[in-house]
Amino acid sequence: MDLFIIRHGQSGNNALANIRDREVDPPLTDLGKRQAELLAEHLASGETHDRITADTGNTKYQLRQGFGITSLFTSAMYRSLQTVQPVAKALGMAPKIWVDIHEEGGMYLKHGGDEGLVGYPGRTRSEILSEFPDYQLPVDFDDDGWWNKGHEDTASVLVRAAKVAKQLHEMAPNEDRVAIISHGGFMNALLTALFGQDPAGQMYYRHHNTAISRISMDGSEVQDVRYVNRIDHLSPEQVS
Questions:
Q1: Which of 34, 102, 108, 169 is 20 to 30 A from 60 via CA?
Q2: 35 and 238 in contact (C-beta within 8 Å)?
Q3: Which fold has domain 2-238?
């Protein structure tokens, strides 16, 4: 399985001068929407190199047009739902919502003082389908909202990342090319889990908005890291 881990486009919170002004579930900025459009074009028709393993055991590569995505997943956060929309259209696919690939912390705001970190509800099934009617939601995704708890602590993020990494390993023998639209902090935790690294170590996998990381997996513990934080589809002024 080839796994493409992709960060969402620039959100309103990403563009803030003061983090105290952040929203719970921000939309994409105009730049973020353009990044998502360019990402969609790139995944649909951009040039990529695929492996050809000869009988000699040597690995060679061939140039191809488009990434050949066969499964497309997104988090339930609004910036990801918006990012995947042009991608799904360009690929002719219905994206699937994968709740566990949401950003670290969940839905929350930092109020300070005695209130501290306060959790807020996520979008409901009805709210999502009213704007994104073609998206596929889990059967247990109901109208209570996908997030109904407080701020997610670091330990819980790491447990969730390990769970998603395990699920991806289990998917590897039966899937071809999987793309997931996720978030910077969680992508770092997920890559750390996939690579079996110490989450308290000194490595951080930073990603620009709509950056792509590509990993080849066969279901074993061995993984082929093709690239991390690639932004070929963006011009220098579009990088955020």
A1: 169
A2: yes
A3: Rossmann fold (3.40.50)
